[in-house]
Each structure stands twice: as structure tokens, then as C-alpha cells.
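Go through this one:
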Amino acid sequence: MRRRAIVIAGSIAQKPREAGHTWAFLQYLLGFVQLGWDVLLLDRLEPEMRRDAGASEGLAYLQTVLQQFNLEKNFSVICDGGRRFVGLDRQTVLDRVKNADLLLNFNGFLPEGEIRAASRRRVYIDIDPGFAQMWKELGLHDAFSGHDDFVTIGLNIGDSDCHIPTCGLNWITTVQPIALKYWPAHPSLPDGPITTIGAWRGPNGPVDFRGKRYGLRVHEFRRFADIPLRTGKMFSVALDIDPSETADIDLLKRGGWTLIDPREAAADPDAYQKFIADSAAEFMMAKNMYVQSRSGWISDRSICYLASGRPVAAQDTGIEKHVPPGKGMLLFSNPDEAVERIKELTADYAAHACGARRLAEEYFSADRVLPELLSKLNL
């Protein structure tokens, strides 16, 4: 009997030393391997994608990561508009795509063309809910055309209190999976710092939609800048922020935050796991888009904290409809609530640390999430 096969189109090579981003795709690759599927990672490198890293650095990073997880024979990087392939060659890629049951195209990363067209079933995976939907409604960009199915981690899309438009599409919802085999729980660390990691702004700008502006993480984080001072706890953030943003950097430092170089904290998958394991808990700040739209989004980073036995104090995006807050994860909507949640977390730390791992196992394990997603796709 033929083994089922899946192609995952996502970006690792263009973001070396951003292991949180890397793990978002590894969870799917490793999760499907554990389910007995053949996997292929399709990546792309174009000159405009390389930021401060050259192509050789990105390719070397990708190959090192895949070797670590025995996936070095399961990838191809499409370079320079398809004129060059690194890893599997063009014809092999076409054959693998044609024979695969599914192509999971994360945020439409694989553009229209011969390779995408070769897939028998193209699934758009939306891991940045709100932006692409609003762009389409505003006539700015249509990332959804050419796909057969539409999946989002915005769990509330279609609900009356969620402001993300459906664009007339039938959205399937899912949480991000985590391959728990690779994320063991660590002994509790109540005296460690409360941490988080992420980008201050990210690649997308705010979106003005139906009379509201939907912003970025910076627009939420500023509201909570003094939480370390108010709680008297150690807070550290591995923050990708431009050094020119001196006013915001000063704001965070005055508020009691210790700023860490994210390229060290997330230099590779192991460094990312160590950064989380060395934390007592996560203080999760969401993009304003996710909060204001009531998206029902939860960070794949927070799921990694939970799996590691690290509780999460998370900004509320409407996730409580799907993952009940309590031991392991506490929700807040404003600075006063955030202070209270930190007090609750530290007052009963051992119970929250145990609860964190239980939440990961019950709601986010790839062994549960991926079969459920396949079922929703009628596979």
C-alpha cells in the first residue's frame, strides 16, 4: 500500500538564526513523519528575501537543521525564480508534488507556477490571521486564489464577534501542532525569568479596515511596558527590534525589561529550546491585529513553553472559547489584569507548571492535531 505523502511549502532558509520560525514548520514535518507520512519541504530564496543574510548562510542553516532531524533528503529550495534548485532537483520535485496527497502552502509562500499547479490538492495554511483576509477585502492582494482548501489558526473566524472577514471562503480552523517527542517537560524553575521572544514590528504594516486600524505587536507591547516594575519580577525579552527605535528601547528598559539578542536566543533549534527551558514562564504579547479582531489566535511559541512545562500568561485574543484558561495558562486583557495573572502564576507555580504540560498534551500534540486536521480535510 502506498505511503501517503505531503508537501509543506514554508520558509526556513530565508530566516537563519530565527529558530522560533523554524520550529513552526518543523512541528508539521516531524508530526507527519510520526504519523507515517512521507514529507517534502519546499523552500524559496529570492534576492529580496535575504535581509542581512546571504543565500549561502540561509542554505547552510537549513541543511544543518534538517540533518539534525534526519530530514536532509526531504527538501528542495527554489532559488532565483526557479532557475536553480538546491536539494532535490526540479524534476524530482515536480514528481513528488504530483504524487503527494496534499500541498500545505503556508501563507501562500509557494507562488503560482508549474510546481504549485502540479499538486492534486492545494491547501492554504493561514498562520498570520487577519492580514491576508483584510488585504483581499480591500483589493490589495489575493493570496487565496489557486487553492482548494483554506485553513487558519484564527480559531474564531466566522464567529459574530470576530472581525476577520471570511472573504466568502469556507475556513477550516486548527491550532498549531507540536511534536512532543522533541519537546520534553523540564523541571520547574520558579526563580527563573519570565520571558518571551519575537519581533517588535515584523514584515507587515498596520491595516485600516472598516473604520479601525489593526496594528502590530509594538502597539500592544507599549501598553504593558512597565509590567516588570509593577510585579517586581525578572522579565527578559529576546526582541527583534531595530536599534534606531531608541524611544521604545528606552521605554522597555525603564519598565524593567532585560533585552536579549534574539539571534543568540534563537540561533538554532537547540538554543531556542534552551531559552524556553531557562525561563520560569512566558509573558505572551500578541499583535494588535490578533487582539482587536478577536481572532482566537494562540502563539506557536506559547505552545512550546507549555510543552516544556513553562506556564504562560497570555494576552487574550478570544482563545478561551477553545482552550480553557486555568492551570498552565492565564489570560489578561489590560495591564491591571496582567499584574494579577503574574501574581496568580507565581503564587501557585508548581501547579501551573504541571498544568502547562497537560495543556500541551491535551490540546496541541501533533498526534492529535494533525489527524483532526486531516479529518476536516476529508482525508
